[in-house]
Amino acid sequence: MHERTRGYAYLTAAMALVGTTVVASKVTAAAIPPLTATAARFALALPCFLLLMWWTRTPWPRVGPRDAALLLAQALAGSIGYTTLLMLGMRHTSATDAGVILGTLPVVAALCAAVLLKERLSGALLATIGLVAGGLLVLAPPGAGAAPETGGMLGNALVLGAVVCEALFILLNRALRVEVAPLALSTLMTAIGLAGALAGAWWEPAATWSLLAPAGAAVAYYALVPTVAGFLLWYAGARLVSAAEAAVFTAVAPVSALLAAMLVLHEQPQLRQLAGIGCVLAAILMLARQPARAAVS
After folding, report:
1. By the number of CB atoms within 10 A of the CB, which of 69, 187, 229, 230 ranks highest?
2. Per the UniProt record, which residue ranges are transmembrane (predicted)?
3. What secondary structure letter does DSSP report for 250?
């Protein structure tokens, strides 16, 4: 297989796994408090990352106080904030709606960079932001109810908050002065996320579940497949293609989420959701055509 084709296959598989996290989060959120579930996810993923670091002889980064503070903030946003808000949101919205919102990540990251880092908003970027805004608006049109299973405004807002947390993770990574190897970064984020989630989970009600229950199985899947396997696939593919090409494959995530919601949760997408996903996919493709930096975590 040609090197570039192999890269495309890796990236497609990685983003397909990312899309399934909304279904795993929905199954988990039905039975397990969010911080407890987050802690369980990282507790399962951390030994895998540590083993990979030992196997690949990846060194731990040496960072100063400033970068250490940035790494801590990254973990709070990208590890704890993203997972917790996604699981909270899945209690109030459908997996299909959440998948559409998840697909806005590259555009949200570009918008956050413009607001926080004062990067210039080009005409093309404004157009992509408009497309994403249109996609989000059709998910919750004026007068829509907030029914728990039909895309309530609260659930969609929480999922969007999760996407903002992940966008902040990307921006904070760009601010590091010391380059951290991807595997070492993922291991650090998992370890810090585990410590923070355990501290918060202490105050949550006890979860009544076992590893044989659907919620426990969903946590194990989230930890081992999208988290560990998704990481390996993404960085294996990203090494074989350009950053702009890699950005295009983020469009696979919302499509994967929609298909997983149909197959696993038996959700039937409505016309407004298909319109929303169309807007998001168009925005991602437009953004990928710009000669800008692309970063995905």
Report:
1. 187
2. 39-56, 68-88, 100-117, 124-141, 153-171, 183-203, 209-234, 246-265, 271-288
3. G
- Any domain includes 295: no
Q: Would the pTM count as exceeding 0.90?
A: no
- d(CA 92, CA 90) in angstroms, rounded, equals 5
Domain contains 26:
yes
Q: Which two tokens stand for residue 211?
A: 């590893």
CA 41 to chain CA mean position, Å: 14
In a domain, 293, yes or no: no
First-residue to last-residue Cα distance in the chain: 26
Residue 297 exposure: Cα atoms within 13 Å on the Cβ side: 28
Quote the number of domains for the chain: 1
Per-residue pLDDT of the chain (297 residues; tens, 9 = 90+): 678 788 888 988 998 999 899 999 999 988 888 999 999 999 999 999 999 999 999 999 898 999 999 999 999 998 999 999 999 999 888 888 888 888 888 778 878 877 777 767 667 667 777 777 777 666 654 444 444 444 478 888 999 999 999 888 888 888 888 888 889 999 999 999 999 999 988 888 765 555 557 888 999 999 999 999 998 998 888 888 876 677 777 778 888 888 899 899 898 877 877 887 787 778 777 766 665 443 333
Domain that holds residue 178: 3-288
At 295, the amino acid letter reads A
| Identity of the amino acid at 243 | A
Q: Please choose, from the candidates 189, 162, 184, 174, the residue with its C-alpha nearest in 3D space to the C-alpha of residue 105.
A: 162
Name residue 190's amino acid: T
Supply 174's token pair. Answer: 């760009």
